[in-house]
Every structure is written in structure tokens, then in C-alpha cells.
């Protein structure tokens, strides 16, 4: 059976990824030209695919594994996020990030499993990606935000997770700005330089993994055991295929599969000079999430840059326009200026977007499909920790293992189907607009 639906949308250069730009130039890519055969092919070299390929190779050292990506590994979405490996409940469609006690506990179990796997890999291989186990601050800018934080704290108490309140002065001492009125510190979150992490995870794959970059899969043919993946100038025959293409797997029109490619955007400042660093004050490095999920995420980086993220846009074709990027940059500059009036000369050097894969019911795709391929798709905005876990666990599942977390993923809700376009476009865009509007001052 031809499965061209899976590959109709390919990564586009959506702005300039500041994390990638601040790394040294990579070695030339190994591209998929000519004919190849592998036991396993993992499609998608984001965090999910990187963990899937590693786990397959670890558990089956006698098997050959290919990991293919349409872009350079680290330049696409997994290398262009804000770098939070979130352990706690983080449902961005909920006003307090929380769901029910059972759902929250299940999320925490899964996310910590993913974080532990990547942290252990980073430590074992000495991957230089500024991995920090320093926790995160959830900060509010007004009474409404403080109330949302109170609900989040209540949700954490219900699942026995610790957190610590900071008043205006205390969060000001961390961030250097008087913009925030209160904050909750949660200790379990890790942060990274995401492009460096993805490159490091690629460079340290076991020796039975071959990586192909700048190699977009155009089509997959074959039902059951053997599949043929076609590229612009080559093909790979595979006994098993694992799809980790996240938002790029979204299909609309005749076959809506419930995956929503929703873009979010980030900007990174230039490096601050000594005078600017003194004017800002605060801690050398910190990571902050807004009280309202639609607000602005901010990181102060050890490299003396500041990274801000906000704004969402539903883009079913999985690419953004120059106008989208210009709007995002304008919003980022406004958010930056409001928080850091003492840094009025520090311009934003890079602005970019990346596609999240959201679903209306927080469901995701995990397991074996009717055509025999395996899939782990649907990050719901938390791909670093959830994708790490889903990638590792889909590999274990594909090799016939079973455990409680695989069961948890197999039994999670399937993404709820959406109305066909253009009804879906209007409904999703309107929902985003309403939520962003209500985030107000948190932007
Ligand atoms: C600005 C921004 C900030 C974010 N902040 C955070 C955060 O702090 N924490 C967090 O957890 N998440 C965050 N996210 C979301 C996070 O980046 C995603 O959840 C994560 O990247 C999902 O990982 P993935 O491997 O499942 O998918 P992706 O990273 O999307 O990887 C899929 C890969 O598949 C490849 N691909 C697609 N089609 C093909 C094809 N036909 N052939 C070959 N390759 C193909 C793509 O090139 C891509 O590399 C953020 C996202 C953005 C954009």
C-alpha cells in the first residue's frame, strides 16, 4: 500500500534558528543516495526519532538501524524549542496546566522516564548541551496569573509534588526585572541548548545506527514486513519502519487524522555586554514559564543571551510566511521591552518558528499501524520529555517488549478527528485567538 499521505509535508526554513546558528558549522550531511537495506528505518530525527533509533540499536546490537531526516538534525523543531524538559503536568490547553489526578500522575511518570533516559545518555557521552537540572519558575504578572498559579500549586499538592512560592522581590532577584509579581518554583525541570543536544544525540548513536540527513522520504510502499522508502536520489528497503515525524504527519482534507500543526515562535537576543549584564542583574541563568500557557516563556542563558517564546498560529501546511515571522518578532520585541526596560539597546538577533503537533483531546499516536509501520507521533507541545519517552518506548514495543509505560501509551486516547478544512482552520484559529487574547498581560 502506498502511504504517500505520511509525507506530503516537509520541513521548511521557518526563520533562523538561533540555537543552531550559535553552534559551530556541522560536518557535511550523509544523504540517502543509491540503494540501501536496513533492519529498521526510523523516519524523523527529532528527539522522538533520536531516542527510538538509540533504543533499537541498544536492545538489538545485531540489527542495522537507519535514522533519516529531511533537514539537518538539530535545525528542525526539536532543535528550535525553548529547551525545557518538563517533568510535571503541562497541559497547555488547560488554564492551570493540570488535568485530573490520575492523568497528571501518568504524565509525570512518563515524562520523568524520558528525561532520565536522555540525562543518562548526556552524562554517559559527555554531550555538551548546557544540560541543567535547575528547575523552572512559573511566574505571574497580575492577580489573574497569581490565581492560575494557585490552581497549579493545588494540582501539584494533589499529586504530592513539591513547589516553592516566591514573592515579587524574590522572583525579581532571580530575573533582574520587577515585571513579575509572584512565582512558583518547581525543582524537577531540566533545561538544555536544544540544537546542541540533538546534534550530540546524533553524534553518539550506537555504531549500528547510520544517519541520513537532508534526506526527505517522499513515499513508503509495501504492506507487512518489507517496506521501500523513496528519496529524491535513492531508496532504502527496510524490514521495519518507525515513524517519528510529529506535525509533518498531519493530514487534512480527505483523511483528517486529528493532528494539528500549530506553530509557536521564539526570538533570541544578541550576547549582552558587561554593562548590560550589570544593568540586568539577577541570576546568571534561569528558565521561566508564564502563569497562563498562552503567555511568554523566557530563558536567560549562560551565554548571556535572552530567549523569548510566545504566539501560536495554526498552519495546516506546516510552514509559515514572512508575515507570520514579522508578526512574531514584533510580539517578541514588545514582550522583551516590557520585561527588560534596562536592556533597550539589546536587539533580538534571531527569530524563528516551529511546528507543535497538538490534538484536540491531548491524545497521540503510538503503536503499530494497519500497514505494519510503527509510529510515535503527537508531542502536544511537550516533545522534549514526552518525545524522549515515546521514542524509547516505541523501540521497545517494536522489539516485542512490554511494560507499564508502553501499556500507558497504547491506551492513551487516539487524537480526536477534526472537521475538514476550512471549518477546522476557522475553529482552531479562533480558539487560539481567544486564548491569546485572554492571556493579556502574560504576553
Ligand atoms: C519555539 C518552540 C518552543 C518550544 N519549547 C518547548 C519546550 O521548551 N519543551 C518541550 O518539550 N517542547 C517544546 N517545543 C515543542 C518541541 O520542539 C516538540 O514537541 C518536539 O520537537 C517534538 O519532537 P519530535 O521528535 O516528536 O518531532 P520533531 O522535532 O518535529 O521532529 C520530526 C522530524 O521529522 C522530520 N521529517 C518530517 N517529515 C519527514 C520526511 N518525509 N522525511 C524525513 N524526515 C522528515 C523533520 O525534519 C523533523 O526533524 C517547542 C517548540 C517550538 C517551536
TrEMBL record:
Organism: Caballeronia hypogeia
Keyword Oxidoreductase: yes
Superkingdom as given in the UniProt entry: Bacteria
Protein name according to UniProt: FAD dependent oxidoreductase
Gene Ontology CC entries for this record: cytoplasm
Pfam families per record: DAO (PF01266)
Oxidoreductase among keywords: yes
Key words of the record: Oxidoreductase
Annotated GO MF terms: oxidoreductase activity
SUPFAM superfamilies, per database record: FAD/NAD(P)-binding domain
Domain spans labelled FAD dependent oxidoreductase: 39-396
Amino acid at each position: 500500500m502506498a502511504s504517500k499521505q505520511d509525507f506530503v509535508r516537509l520541513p521548511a526554513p521557518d526563520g533562523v534558528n538561533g540555537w543552531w546558528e550559535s553552534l559551530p558549522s556541522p560536518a557535511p550531511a550523509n544523504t540517502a543516495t543509491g540503494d540501501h537495506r536496513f533492519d529498521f528505518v526510523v523516519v524523523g530525527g527529532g528527539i522522538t526519532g533520536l531516542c527510538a533509533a538509540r533504543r533499537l540499536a541498544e536492545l538489538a546490537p545485531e540489527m542495522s538501524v537507519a535514522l533519516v531526516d529531511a533537514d539537518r538534525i538539530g535545525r528542525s523543531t526539536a532543535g528550535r524549542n525553548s529547551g525545557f524538559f518538563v517533568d510535571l503536568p503541562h497541559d497547555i490547553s488547560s488554564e492551570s496546566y493540570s488535568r485530573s489526578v490520575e492523568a497528571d500522575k501518568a504524565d509525570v511518570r512518563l515524562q520523568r522516564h524520558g528525561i532520565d533516559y536522555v540525562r543518562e545518555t548526556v552524562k554517559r557521552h559527555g554531550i555538551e548541551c548546557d544540560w541543567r537540572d535547575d528547575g523552572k519558575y512559573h511566574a505571574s504578572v497580575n492577580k489573574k496569573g497569581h490565581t492560575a498559579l494557585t490552581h497549579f500549586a493545588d494540582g501539584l499538592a494533589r499529586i504530592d509534588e513539591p513547589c516553592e512560592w516566591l514573592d515579587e522581590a524574590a522572583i525579581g532577584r532571580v530575573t533582574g526585572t520587577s515585571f513579575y509579581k509572584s512565582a512558583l518554583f518547581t525543582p524537577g525541570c531540566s533545561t538544555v541548548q536544544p540544537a546542541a543536544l540533538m546534534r550530540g544525540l546524533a553524534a553518539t548513536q550506537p555504531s549500528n545506527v547510520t544517519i541520513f540527513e537532508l534526506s526527505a522520504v517522499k513515499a513508503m510502499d509495501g504492506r507487512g514486513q518489507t517496506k521501500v522508502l523513496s528519496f529524491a536520489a535513492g531508496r532504502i528497503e527496510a524490514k521495519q519502519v518507525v515513524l517519528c515525524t510529529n506535525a509533518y504527519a498531519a493530514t487534512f482534507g480527505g483523511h483528517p487524522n486529528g493532528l494539528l500543526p500549530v506553530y509557536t515562535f521564539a526570538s533570541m537576543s544578541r550576547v549582552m555586554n558587561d554593562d548590560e549584564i550589570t544593568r540586568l542583574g539577577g541570576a546568571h541563568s534561569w528558565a521561566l514559564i508564564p502563569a497562563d500557557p498562552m503567555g511568554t516563556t523566557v530563558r536567560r542563558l549562560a551565554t548571556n543571551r535572552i530567549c523569548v517564546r510566545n504566539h501560536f498560529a495554526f498552519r495546516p501546511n506546516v510552514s509559515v510566511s514572512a508575515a507570520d515571522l514579522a508578526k512574531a518578532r514584533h510580539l517578541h520585541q514588545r514582550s522583551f521591552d516590557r520585561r527588560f526596560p534596562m536592556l533597550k539597546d539589546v536587539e533580538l538577533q534571531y527569530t524563528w518558528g516551529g511546528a507543535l503537533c497538538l490534538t484536540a483531546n491531548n491524545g497521540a499516536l503510538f503503536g503499530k499501524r494497519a500497514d505494519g509501520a510503527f509510529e510515535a507521533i503527537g508531542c502536544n507541545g511537550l516533545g522534549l520529555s514526552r518525545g524522549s519517552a515515546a521514542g524509547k518506548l516505541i523501540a521497545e514495543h517494536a522489539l516485542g517488549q512490554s511494560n507499564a509505560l508502553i501499556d500507558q501509551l497504547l491506551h492513551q486516547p487516539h487524537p480526536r478527528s477534526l472537521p475538514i478544512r476550512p471549518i477546522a482552520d476557522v475553529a482552531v484559529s479562533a480558539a487560539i485567538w481567544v486564548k491569546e487574547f485572554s492571556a493579556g498581560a502574560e504576553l
